[in-house]
Design a protein that fits this description.
The chain has 286 residues and is mostly beta strands. It has a single domain, classed as Beta-galactosidase, Chain A, domain 5 (Distorted Sandwich). Helices cover 3% and strands 48% of the residues. The chain has 2 helices and 26 strands. It is globular and about 55 Å long. The mean pLDDT is 96.
């Protein structure tokens, strides 16, 4: 399987264009920070729980029932054991390489009545990994749109999400968010609790802080995303921390004028998302 390598003195990244244009491996200061399988074929067999991948034209879960949206009939087949339709259409499809760190993918059909194009640029500069995404509506009518990335960062991991409110659980969120409390209050750096699956909104900073205490590595995720999803299933040795442009049930939110809905993207228009990961070292004795 073809692996695209992008490197700096501090970072070594391996991308799999054939399976979602995804990050297979992310080594920083010599340590693997993503949940990376020994065999790259595992990404094909189980594409949801490895590496880091793009979510488009929607993020998280949307409705499985046939719906009329913007004058078009949406009728998608569930792709997750809980009966939901999760993470879009491009995370396991082949992407085309357009240049160094530049990849693209066209989609549509399979119950999604709009054609679209997703573009991704991945770049490393010293201790920074920069990801720039765009989703362009190629159809003749307006299209609901969402965009995000889904990295699985290895544990043990400390996390800070500077958000004042959240939606939970992601499988069936209420229309309005709740104020953060208890385990869902992640405004200070702390070990990530087990078995959270929620979406944080009301961000006071467009940044998430990570720390691998045992490795002496810290990271800041700077993003223009309005939502941060975190999933920490106990049986997975990693935490999903996902910058996204909308909350779960994004189609429902759009149809019912609920907050944090998917964007209605006009023909030829583009939705963009930028994610900048800045890594650093610290003394493990501090």
């Amino acid at each position: 399987m073809n692996e695209l390598a992008i490197e700096s003195n501090a970072i070594q990244a391996a991308i799999l264009p054939e399976i979602g244009g995804r990050l297979h491996r992310l080594q920083v200061f010599g340590h693997d920070l993503l949940r990376t399988p020994d065999d790259t074929a595992r990404h094909r067999d189980d594409p949801i729980f490895w590496g880091s991948y793009v979510m488009a034209p929607w993020c998280n879960r949307i409705e499985a029932a046939p719906l009329m949206v913007a004058g078009q009939r949406l009728n998608l087949i569930p792709n997750f054991p809980d009966g939901s339709i999760i993470h879009g259409q491009v995370f396991d499809r082949p992407w085309e390489q357009a240049g160094t760190g530049q990849l693209g993918c066209q989609g549509g059909g399979d119950g999604w009545p709009w054609q679209y194009e997703v573009a991704q640029t991945i770049e490393v500069i010293d201790e920074r990994l920069l990801i720039a995404l765009s989703l362009t509506n190629l159809a003749d009518t307006a299209m609901p749109a969402g965009l995000g990335i889904h990295p699985w960062f290895v544990r043990p991991l400390e996390v800070r999400v500077p958000a004042t409110s959240f939606y939970s659980p992601n499988s069936n969120t209420l229309a309005q968010p709740e104020n953060v409390f208890g385990l869902h209050d992640l405004r200070r750096l702390q070990p990530m609790p087990d078995d959270l699956d929620a979406t944080w909104t009301g961000l006071t900073e467009r940044m998430v802080e990570l720390r691998w205490l045992a490795l002496g590595i810290g990271a800041e995720i700077h993003t223009d995303a309005s939502q941060i999803v975190a999933a920490s299933p106990r049986h997975i040795d990693a935490v999903g921390l996902e910058p996204q442009t909308h909350a779960p049930q994004g189609i429902r939110r759009l149809l019912h004028n609920e907050p944090d809905a998917m964007t209605l993207l006009e023909p030829a228009a583009s939705l963009r998302l930028n994610v900048d990961l800045v890594f650093s070292r610290f003394s493990r004795h501090n």
